[in-house]
Design brief:
single chain, alpha/beta, Rossmann fold, 7-stranded parallel beta sheet, 6-stranded parallel beta sheet, 18 helices, 13 strands, globular
């Protein structure tokens, strides 16, 4: 446990005992600051960027709060770059990101079934969380899609020790067509269980925050007889708006200066290819890299930068001449704001960063990934952002043609909220 500290040079005066304040409670109140344990989903890097921003806004509202992060790779990479404090039990966490990578094949991930097969990991990680709470004097737990914590606290409400703020950017498990009637039955059953948990024990979630607006919720039902997802979500959640983790306005207005700062030349047409923090996107990286020679013939001055991320070996990608391959890139959103075009997977964070920065992009949702194909695509359609591409129908020559077609296309996206982190923090602050 990381114990709170009190400067040794400060000696508090003797307390005045009143009927309302005893010496013991007064001393305890002075002896420690307010403490929060923050858990950010490790599946990709998207949650980490927004959670760091929310934590920063929370510190503005509550300067006395100390935040520890119970986190695993690749989230710890982002947290350490921002100087955040990692809880010492973090190395005990089982890798959710590695499990997701192992469940994937060539640009295919059935995210719902992968979560179903993650029970042992979720149980193990909840026990690490439980140990952290039992050994630390925390006042608040913030869980950004910490599915293990939310599920097992609802199953074991007597284990709740602190206030709990729950955040998510989607609500509702949805079946993919390839899963047939059996998957439709299972997703409906999962949704029914979640609804029953929340309505039976509403005290578990002291605050439930949807990272977005009501219109971002898919127009689907939870399943037969369970009702619309949006209606239920509006009754049980508060809305922060989207959280980018950065203010896009100075990046948009100072784009030419940003390009110079990042080393991009005025006559270059820069394409950034990135697939997030897991290893799931390796097939897409390889295919886009293979499209470069054809794309370069179509676009003068084309420069392609492929970001492998922390789980893909850049040397294994076999990059063709003219393509730069980089590993982890700090503050990747700045490069995305400076590029002429991006080619990305279908994850919410990267696509919404591009929408906020008003850059054209191609996005390829993972086949059978219900969140990317249903929830994320619905939200991007609402913003009018990006061009949807189907991986199976996009050999390198098709990708090259799309790059040439989209790189100069003017964008007219719906503006993305800039105050989401502050709104989320304002909803959390009263809990601590």
């Amino acid at each position: 446990m990381i114990a709170p500290s009190t400067p040794q040079s400060q000696t508090p005066p003797a307390p005045q005992t009143t009927p309302q304040t005893t010496p013991r409670t007064w001393t305890r109140a002075l002896a420690r600051r307010r403490r929060a344990l923050y858990i950010s989903s490790p599946i990709g890097l998207g949650h980490a960027q927004r959670d760091v921003a929310i934590a920063g806004e929370l510190r503005k509202l509550r300067p006395d709060v100390e935040i520890d992060w119970l986190a695993q790779s690749p989230v710890t990479t982002v947290l350490e770059a921002h100087g955040e404090r990692i809880h010492p039990l973090s190395p005990e966490l089982a890798s959710e990101s590695a499990h997701i990578t192992a469940e994937s094949s060539e640009h295919d991930l059935n995210a719902f079934q992968a979560i179903r097969r993650m029970d042992e990991i979720l149980v193990a990680n909840f026990m690490v969380f439980h140990d952290a709470i039992e050994s630390g004097a925390y006042d608040l737990v913030i869980g950004d899609e910490a599915w293990d914590v939310d599920y097992f606290l609802h199953e074991n409400p007597e284990l709740k020790r602190t206030a709990f703020a729950w955040m998510t950017d989607f609500v509702g498990w949805l079946p993919m067509p390839s899963g047939g009637d059996h998957e439709a039955f299972l997703t409906s059953d999962y949704n029914a269980e979640m609804i029953e948990q929340v309505e039976r024990f509403p005290r578990i979630r002291d605050r439930a925050i949807f990272v977005g607006e009501p219109d971002d919720i898919v127009p689907d039902d939870f399943g037969p007889g369970l009702g619309p997802i949006r209606d239920w979500t509006e009754r049980h959640f508060e809305f922060s708006g989207y959280v980018t983790g950065f203010d896009p306005t100075p990046l948009i207005e100072g784009r030419e200066e940003l390009r110079r700062e990042l080393g991009y030349q005025p006559d270059e047409r820069v394409v950034i290819v990135t697939v997030g923090g897991s290893g799931v996107g390796e097939s897409l990286l390889r295919r886009v890299i293979a499209s470069y020679p054809d794309a370069a013939r179509r676009v003068n001055g084309l420069r392609m930068i492929a970001v492998a991320g922390p789980r893909i070996d850049p040397a294994s990608l076999g990059a063709v001449a003219g393509v730069e391959v980089r590993a982890f890139v700090p503050d990747l959103y700045r490069h995305l704001a400076a590029c002429d075009l991006a080619v990305v997977q279908g994850g919410l964070t990267t696509t919404m960063e591009l929408a906020a920065a008003r850059r054209p992009f191609l996005y390829f949702p993972l086949r059978d990934h219900f969140e990317q194909n249903r929830h994320v695509r619905h939200r991007l359609n609402r913003y009018g952002a990006g061009r949807y591409m189907e991986y199976a129908a996009s050999p390198p020559e098709v990708i090259a043609e799309a790059i040439a077609a989209e790189i100069d296309r003017p964008v007219d996206y719906r503006p993305v909220e800039t105050d989401g982190a502050a709104r989320a923090a304002a909803l959390i602050a009263p809990l601590i």
